[in-house]
Design brief:
The protein has a single domain, classed as Rossmann fold, CATH 3.40.50. Helix content is 30%, strand content 16%. Helix 3 crosses helix 4. Bound molecules: iron/sulfur cluster. Iron/sulfur cluster (SF4) binds next to loops.
Length: 285
Amino acid sequence: MAEPQEFNTPYSPTWCPGCGNFSIWNSLKKALSELEVEPKDVAIVYGIGCSGNMNNFVNTYAFHAIHGRTLPVATGIKLANHNLQVIAVSGDGDGYGIGIAHLIHAVRRNLNLTYIVHNNMVYGLTTGQTSPTSGKGFVSKSTPGGAIEEAVNPPALALAAGATFIARGFAGDMPGLTELIKEAIRHRGFSLVDVFQPCVTFNQVNTYPWYKKRVYRLEEEGYKPDNKSRAFSKSQEWGEKIPTGIFYRESRKIYEDELPALAQSPLVEQDIGNIDITQAVEEFA
Ligand code: SF4
């Protein structure tokens, strides 16, 4: 079994001291180690943002995609080699802004991959603008009079799109987050883990103390994540009490199972030496 430190690279994270990204980074490495996944069997796709810098700090196969496009790249990798453990890592600006349509389509396809979103409710890398998950009224450089739009609600959106695994973690609860990531990776199908990730530099509203006063674990209430209506109602809970944990989980056939081309072996292992593409090439000549 690979120890968590085997997922380290020679480079140290460059995030601001106290950033919630440190906890997500450690939770992911611990989850992979405890699941006995070897670095060579994992491919992680990163987006653009402070979360994307993790590309340099985790020792697995990695791809630093362009803004908002983690899920299309992760989909391609999974289809090319479905034996790999494929994980996509985004931020809220990346994944719920320019990349939001990809989330809906990835969810309805139900590929067997895990999507971890560092949700700090602000654009951090570009030094503090209102993001799709910033609360209404959020004051930043881009909304000096306060955000006018309602925030995107990731668990509710994923539920409406038909997700088979939806969870929310908190970077201030590393043991809880590690367990959620493990459950998400174990899930056979598309799994979303939205993570409250305090940005200590550019978000002075959603801070560690702000979350600590509000978040609780769903399982402490005896909540069972097997009912869509109940999950939807929990996804609407916001304010004095904010739930974390697994909102919803169901078992459904995955996309890879429906593709005859993948039935025998991953595409990367298939012999293409005897395929004659002359006719196709001539058509486009
Ligand atoms: Fe973390 Fe915010 Fe600093 Fe980015 S700007 S590294 S999200 S604290």
